[in-house]
Amino acid sequence: MSHILTQKLDEEKVFKDPVHRYVHVYDKLIWDLINTSEFQRLRRIRQLGTSYVTFHGAEHSRFNHSLGVYEVMRRILEKFMTRPAWQEAMPGWSEEDRMLCLCAALLHDVGHGPFSHSFEKVFNTDHEEWTGKILLGETEINQVLKQVSDDFPHKVNEVIAKTYENKLVVSLISSQIDADRMDYLLRDAYYTGVNYGNFDLERILRVMRPHEEYAVIKYSGMHAVEDYIMSRYQMYWQVYFHPVTRSAEVILRKIFKRVKDLYDEGYDFNCQPHLLKGFLEEKMDLKDYLRLDESTILYYFQMWVEEGDSILADLCDRFINRRLFKYVEFNPSIHMRLYSELEQLFRQAGVNPDYYLEFESSSDLPYDYYRPGEEGERLPIHLLMPGGELRELSRASHIVQAVSGKAQTDHKIYFAQDLLEEREQAGCRDVVAKIRQALRDAEKSGAR
Amino acid sequence: MSHILTQKLDEEKVFKDPVHRYVHVYDKLIWDLINTSEFQRLRRIRQLGTSYVTFHGAEHSRFNHSLGVYEVMRRILEKFMTRPAWQEAMPGWSEEDRMLCLCAALLHDVGHGPFSHSFEKVFNTDHEEWTGKILLGETEINQVLKQVSDDFPHKVNEVIAKTYENKLVVSLISSQIDADRMDYLLRDAYYTGVNYGNFDLERILRVMRPHEEYAVIKYSGMHAVEDYIMSRYQMYWQVYFHPVTRSAEVILRKIFKRVKDLYDEGYDFNCQPHLLKGFLEEKMDLKDYLRLDESTILYYFQMWVEEGDSILADLCDRFINRRLFKYVEFNPSIHMRLYSELEQLFRQAGVNPDYYLEFESSSDLPYDYYRPGEEGERLPIHLLMPGGELRELSRASHIVQAVSGKAQTDHKIYFAQDLLEEREQAGCRDVVAKIRQALRDAEKSGAR
Amino acid sequence: MSHILTQKLDEEKVFKDPVHRYVHVYDKLIWDLINTSEFQRLRRIRQLGTSYVTFHGAEHSRFNHSLGVYEVMRRILEKFMTRPAWQEAMPGWSEEDRMLCLCAALLHDVGHGPFSHSFEKVFNTDHEEWTGKILLGETEINQVLKQVSDDFPHKVNEVIAKTYENKLVVSLISSQIDADRMDYLLRDAYYTGVNYGNFDLERILRVMRPHEEYAVIKYSGMHAVEDYIMSRYQMYWQVYFHPVTRSAEVILRKIFKRVKDLYDEGYDFNCQPHLLKGFLEEKMDLKDYLRLDESTILYYFQMWVEEGDSILADLCDRFINRRLFKYVEFNPSIHMRLYSELEQLFRQAGVNPDYYLEFESSSDLPYDYYRPGEEGERLPIHLLMPGGELRELSRASHIVQAVSGKAQTDHKIYFAQDLLEEREQAGCRDVVAKIRQALRDAEKSGAR
Amino acid sequence: MSHILTQKLDEEKVFKDPVHRYVHVYDKLIWDLINTSEFQRLRRIRQLGTSYVTFHGAEHSRFNHSLGVYEVMRRILEKFMTRPAWQEAMPGWSEEDRMLCLCAALLHDVGHGPFSHSFEKVFNTDHEEWTGKILLGETEINQVLKQVSDDFPHKVNEVIAKTYENKLVVSLISSQIDADRMDYLLRDAYYTGVNYGNFDLERILRVMRPHEEYAVIKYSGMHAVEDYIMSRYQMYWQVYFHPVTRSAEVILRKIFKRVKDLYDEGYDFNCQPHLLKGFLEEKMDLKDYLRLDESTILYYFQMWVEEGDSILADLCDRFINRRLFKYVEFNPSIHMRLYSELEQLFRQAGVNPDYYLEFESSSDLPYDYYRPGEEGERLPIHLLMPGGELRELSRASHIVQAVSGKAQTDHKIYFAQDLLEEREQAGCRDVVAKIRQALRDAEKSGAR
């Protein structure tokens, strides 16, 4: 066993944290990871992307959240590893397993880029892939992790990618009740000021028990878990899927799309998107990727407000100055041809639908029981009954049963209302009237 | 009277705010101001500059705070203007006065640039001056304010500049207990997670009374004000003057200084500081100033990590990757020649003291009584005694008396310890040993 | 209109309240009601009866809660009556209606006796009946209310009894989302320290709208109401129905039953239950009723620990010194004859089942839609949709639908385990073994 | 070493606590102590005596607080005894010392009677004396403690009485920053809703270090301790010494005095004060003392409202129905003969000053440095400086220095204003006018 696995700091380090009061660091390895440039970079990427346009408090970074996930994990393991006879409940558990949990918790989001949701869709990339490159490539993080052993970075990557052989380790960071989710619900609730996200973390930590391949919850803590599931449900609909936030996301996507389209056309940018070139030419390298963050992106946007291309300039101005798209809800099962109709009408009105019209759906599955053969992550939550057997949560809880397996989906049309008004005043009355009528019809269908 | 002064929104707008629960907007004018690009720009400037390197939670923006100051002011006025016979207590008070208070509260920080503390020192500028330019120049804010009357922007500016004739209006936004301070103490405490900043805002609002040229506090609320003064004291020393935060500020200043020095020397930047040119050539215009924000500055820093000039590249890398300067406290009355000694030793060791050594003092005056002929802002806080007369706070409160008029100052030396170590290993043992000895001596003097 | 309806205090009175921060009193009538001896008496009756044996924080009184309900009502009306054109939304609304709401909110619990749940079952009485007597009888409260008009006390009583003609007034204090429930959920959560009871009161108040006979909720606030319904559900199962609390309640009932049985038998109490005589002889008068409170009852219990009758002495000792009954859950549909079997076995073992065995069920209906012809209180909650029509909550919310109309019931057997052990050691091994087996069988059925 | 010192419960027990979230019990001995009847009795004695008449939330019991002190102590020891090389910092520390700390923390208030402040003054008794009797007498607590060893109860008593030889043990429960104070400040703040009492307990626990005979505070935590001292100061003046609370206390004392006077005169009580007889005859025994609690006292008061003696009946009615005495502040150094003058005037007016007039002083010393030869408890708080030496707190902190050693005293006259009015209307105009003038003069002197 490598010495670094058990090497403690001379004195514990603490971070004052508004959510967990304090984040405690005892291990030298963790401290070194926090101080790498790749981890510090997370300070320049907001945890909730565009949510700050809706909830002005939501300006916290992924750095903030990552420390929190680490702290939740640390507390889970502290509980697990100080109970009497804990080794019997966790056979074969080693110091390396403990450190894998902590490192995976700290680093699970390290591959995120700026405004990932929008970014990844346009540039066809994926933050999980970049996480792997950061862990395994020529980075400070890789150097720190390698102190344990040559294959330790690889193992951390496997834990984050959910392919690691010790399933208990994996489940603590990726399951329906894991350190990641528990931190982000509490944290996002705190920063937005929305109190729906609160649940009793301390109680959940106390009723969690390691049980073979995952952690289970003592039956006496069922209500705390119900409350956690409901918090999750509420946060999704109240915060994460807020239509104003999504409107800003739509504009982001349109900006990236316009940049891509212009680049492909050979447009000569006044302000060159140097740091995006890798993506535009589909050969992004790690070093450039690590320089991409929200300050970089916002710098470009500010410059492009003055760009010659009027669409790019307009979209950037919208994002920077919060002139967002309007939206109506609609029901796609009734209006299957709505998009093509609207697209055509927009074109007739002289408003480019490629950049000023978008259909967007949000969907959430607050909890799911186990469905053999479907996506692996959805491990159900199990209750440990007084007699010792396990029971799947939705079979014990009416509340959870009610939301279990039922995805809720919401469909919205986003569009530049101000442009329609401009076109109307410029004389296109009939077409704009038709668009308005179509939107009203759509909205009626959406009012369930 | 202009119609816009009393024009209400069809429906109140609310912002979810973690500190005040909700920020309420009823006036159309306020809503329009919030939506101007100059106000939205405050989203890209952090309230606490470099504090986030010490308190990871302190990532909130000036937008966040500005809404909060507005809300505190709104509540103060709501209290004042709904009490029985309030007009007698506020003779001549008009709707315009009310709106001046709200606008000044909302806009008082609108001139801030990125990392103002450091920025302003190097570039010899001042955010208050820019506030004036934004209010009076060709801006969206100016357009909105002018709807009231041609001289309304000017009046708002006078309120913020403390020169407006109605002193009560001025004092609500600038005094020793004003809407600005009350918001920032609560807000900065919330985001950092440090609970020293808490005091009972609701109680203070209830015991505040307009009284001729300022607001006074009913005697029964004295303890709430004591608590507010102590909160202020604690926040200064625990948060605002934290040495790690100041270390990051020192580096910022050194970066700006290096840019200026290089520009003056005619250095050819690989990545040109276009948006800073106005300052470098001492002819900054408003439009460029408004494009300066933290994303712009951080973009430059990231680019300059690769700049040819090794000092600039190193300093930017330090800031971006949080490799800060070390510090020791010292007592300047004992070591008056310390700076020149250290400067010389640094030069001998081959470490440029212009960029890698700094003396910095922080000083706070938690509360002050009135000193005729001294700086105007320090209006004392007055208590309204049961009999009706006024008494200056420090004469009634032992606690406040104890801190009244007593500035606390702390002096620190910041320096690049890692460079000293490098030089030591490169052979400069004697000089570095002398430097270390001088720092140890300084530290002893600093341990009061 | 009586002058007293609009008479304000010279200066507002405030109560520091940990749940609502401050309770504000502006009306002289309210202030006078608070100072009556009948209202002050509520200080000596705990809000949550025996819950304090489980949650040591739950020591707050009905006085505490009653002020809170008043404050919530005051805020509801403040919102309702300051919106533009509010009179159109509340046609015919008068100052008297406003005062009826406030008085009913303040006084709705004034008839409660000590440990009402247990007390009322044994003595066949009902706190609502006593509320009526207090409002209408020779009391200070009646005197204060009569200042408005001779029939004002009667009207307040009708509001509390839900028979008042203005249904909007009634619904604000008695419906599925009323001032009473909103206060007790928040308050009981605060004092127990259980955070399940939290919901966003301020948001609910903002989205509540008067609409003919009741208050409706704007659709945009649906999630806040969902959260409120879930809080209610959680508080019922986590706090109000906690089996340890109910065990203490069972003992209380047994004590009262024993007192009644002894009194009927003509037993000569060492310490006479003077203040209970009215109930024991079924002719309780108001004056005596008002002297009954928890200190009186606890005094008797302490005295009776030394009473000659060993059952009464033992039961009182159990309550005072928290030696509670054990419990097992069971399923009555499987074990319909369980009670008679256990009763017989207890008798065989020499343990009196009348005092040492109890079957108890708790049942909660978190929310119900409207069922014509069933109990009137269950007015459904209606959402006010964007188009203006109403929609019943459970038809819009999956979560609420899941719990709507579904009573959850839990059945438990409470018994004196220590007596069984005593009997076992005294030789009754076989019978006690049979009892244990029966309890184990019952428990198995209860584990659903 | 006795086995019981290290015997753990099979499963930890937790109490949900609103202040510390959870109180954790691991030791069987502690669990057994909590379940004794003498400890359960603390549920029937309020922590803050009559404060609930001012702050309706302050209804929490000494049981509540005692669990809290235990929990703070448990956390202090957990910190102390898990640091690396902790044994070197606490030479000779044994399991018995640990258990002494926990038991003393839990039991330090166990001797309190109902409304101790008032009670003890009249009956010339002292709760600390009763604590000793409970620990050493024939009680369940004594039985539980004796399981450790025959002299363990004696040792616990010594710790509480501050005479135990291990001064570190003593100081953790009795010093200027001890587990008792830290709990009550937080707890009383929570229940009253006054937020002045908040300070960062977790931080203080982290910077506390055992150092020979007491715990010291690392210099880096000085501000947290300043905040604690200020919290203490504020709580004293805002809550503990609130004049309305003291008015209720004055009435309590008058009731007890009247009972004593009547008993001494041989008055035949309609409702005999059986449980007080021991005190009235100066031979109180432990068994009776343990039956005295607030329910007993309040029962007597309710009965005595109907007592033949009009003074006793009136005083009890005042207490029960919150008809309190009025008060004015005065300056005793100016009005030394005021009491005798007023006494005489009251007699002339026909109002008995023995029961309807009282002079009362409250005095608080927020912090004190060490004064050799004065009362032992005032051990100063020491800071552990970076270099390792100790510095007394008030020498390092301006804020603490300002309040150090400076007792603040406030003098008030309490009197039955309503009786004066009655006498006035009954014709005693001149005398009452003189009384009023004297009170006005006194008040003027009191307005400092």
TrEMBL record, chains A, B, C, D:
<feature type="domain" description="HD/PDEase">
    <location>
        <begin position="58"/>
        <end position="194"/>
    </location>
</feature>
<dbReference type="InterPro" id="IPR050135">
    <property type="entry name" value="dGTPase-like"/>
</dbReference>
<dbReference type="InterPro" id="IPR006674">
    <property type="entry name" value="HD_domain"/>
</dbReference>
<dbReference type="InterPro" id="IPR045509">
    <property type="entry name" value="HD_assoc_2"/>
</dbReference>
<dbReference type="Pfam" id="PF01966">
    <property type="entry name" value="HD"/>
</dbReference>
<dbReference type="InterPro" id="IPR003607">
    <property type="entry name" value="HD/PDEase_dom"/>
</dbReference>
<dbReference type="Pfam" id="PF19276">
    <property type="entry name" value="HD_assoc_2"/>
</dbReference>
<protein>
    <submittedName>
        <fullName>HD superfamily phosphohydrolase</fullName>
    </submittedName>
</protein>
